[in-house]
Amino acid sequence: MTKLTKALCFIIAFMTAMTALAGCGGGSVPEFDIPIYQNHEKLNIVGWEGPSPNFFSREGFEVFAEAGFSIGIPLQVDFAYGTEQWTEEMLDIADELGIKLIITDTTLVNIHFEGGGLADYPADPINVGRYLNHDAFYGIFINDETNVAYWPDLKTKLNELRGIFPENVMYYTNTCDKGYYGGLEAQLRDYIEQCNPSILSYDKYCMMDDGAVLSALFHDKAVVRYLAKEYGLTSWDFILTTGGYWSYRKCSEEDIRWQIALNMAYGYDYIQHFGYSGFADSEKLFDIDGNKTELYHTVKKVNLEAQKLAPVYNSFEWLGTAPVMGERGSDDMFLITIPERFSSDPDDVAGIAKITSNRDALLGIFEDENGNKGFMVTNATNPYDYKAAKVTVKFDAEYAGVRVYEKGVPTTVVLDKNNSALIRLEPGEGKFFIPVKKK
Questions:
Q1: Do 155 and 148 meet the contact criterion of CB atoms below 8 Å apart?
Q2: Pairing between strand 409-414 and 169-174?
C-alpha cells in the first residue's frame, strides 16, 4: 500500500468515525446553517493599574497586550506631568498595539484621597487638546469608591468632563454596599439618579483564602447588570486576580476562568482585572525585576481564551440570565441569593424547551441582530471544590444541532433523538453555544 493510499484510508476511516459519533449511532451528518460573525472588536478586558507604572514603555505596553488586555487604567501614571511629546508617544504606542487608555490627569480631576471628594476647578485646555481625537484615548479616570457625601461633587465633575469629552468614558467605580442604604440596589439607584453616569462599574471581591466564596458574588453581579440594562448604562465588573492579601485567596486558573465566565453569563460589557500591578502584599504578575510570574502566564492563558470568543460575544445582545438549580439541590447556595426580579425563568427561554443540570449552573440568554439565539452556560459551583457539571439542553423542534464554544474554540454537535445535547463543564468553566438549523 502506498503512502498516499494509506493516508486516504486514514482520512476516510477518521471521517466515518466522526460521523458515527456526531450522529449518535450512524447516518450522515446534516449541513447546518451556522451564522458567521466577523466583529473584529476585542473583548473589553481591562487591567486596573495597567500597564504598570514601573514599566510604562513600549515593552511594558507589549507585555500588557500580549496578555490579552485591551483597555488599561494606568492609575499611578499622572499624564498631567508628561510633556506633549511624551503623551503623544505613549498614546501612539498604545494605539499601535490595539490598547485603549483611561488616563489619570490631575489638571482635569483633582482627587482628595482622604475624603474622596473632588476639587471643582476648570480643566486645563492644553491637556484636553492632547487627548481629543486620539484613537488610543478611551476616557478619564475620575475617582474610585467616592463617599456618598461627595456625590454632588461627582455629578458636577461628570457633567463638566462629559461636555469636554462627549464620546469618551468618564470612569468612576462604585463601592460595595457599606450599610449607607438598605441594600445594594437602593444605593446604586440613588447613585444613578443623583449622578447621571454613563457607566456602572462595581467592585467587590468574594474569593476567600479559606476556599469559601461569599454568597454576595452572585447577588451583586445580578443586581449591577440588570440595573445597568434598565438605565441604559454600560456594565463594568471586577474580578479578583492578584489575591493573597487580607482574607482574599490566591486565585487558581479555574478561579480566574470562573469569574470571567460568570461575568459573560451576565453579559457584562467590560471585565476588569484587579489588578495588573498588584496591591499591598498581594500576588503580582511581575516580580521586583519585572520578570513575568506564573500568575501572569495564567492570566494571559485565560484572557486569550476569552478573546477567541470576542467576535461571537460582541455580536450578541444580552437579554437576561437564568439560574439553573442542580438536580441535587443548590450546591453552594449561590443561586438562591439572586433576587427573582433580577433573573430570568429557566423554563421560559426562547429556543430552549428544557434545561437541566446535575450541578448548579447559570444560563446567560442572548440574541444577535438577526434573531439568532445564543447562550452562555457557566458552572455555578465554587471551583475550589472541583465539581464538574453536566448540563442537558433540550432545544425547540426547529433546531437540529448546536454550535458549542469551548475555551473559544467551536465545534458543532448533532442533537440526539430527544433534540438534546449534553454540555459538560469543568470546575470554573463556561461555554457559549448557539442552536442551529439544518440548511
A1: no
A2: unpaired
Q: Which helix (H) or strand (E) holds 255?
A: helix 253-265
Between 136 and 54, the higher pLDDT residue: 136
Q: How many angstroms separate the CA atoms of 378 and 392, rounded? A: 13
CA dihedral 175, 176, 181, 187 (to 10 degrees): 60
Q: 77, 104 in Cβ contact below 8 A?
A: yes
CB atoms within 10 A of CB 53: 14
3-state helix, strand, coil in the chain (%, to 5): 30, 25, 40
Indicate the pairing of strand 420-425 with strand 361-368. Answer: unpaired
201 three-state secondary structure: strand
- Alpha carbon distance 319, 297 (integer Å): 33
Evaluate if residue 1 carries a pLDDT over 60. Answer: no
State the average pLDDT for the chain: 89
**pLDDT at position 350:** 98
Residues 58-75 have pLDDT tens digits of 999 999 999 999 999 998
Query: Domains of the chain, with CATH numbers?
Result: 45-308 (3.20.20.80), 316-438 (2.60.40.1180)
CB environment 250-274: b (16+ within 10 A), e (fewer): ebbbbbbbbbbbbbbbbbbbbbbbb
Residue 299's nearest CA partner among 319, 277, 315 is: 277
Tens-place pLDDT, residues 277-311 = 887 789 999 988 889 999 999 999 999 999 999 99
Residue 113 to residues 116, 119, 273, Cα–Cα distance (Å): 5, 11, 22
Q: What is the mean pLDDT of residues 111-130?
A: 61
Q: 316-324 and 352-357: which strand pairing? A: unpaired
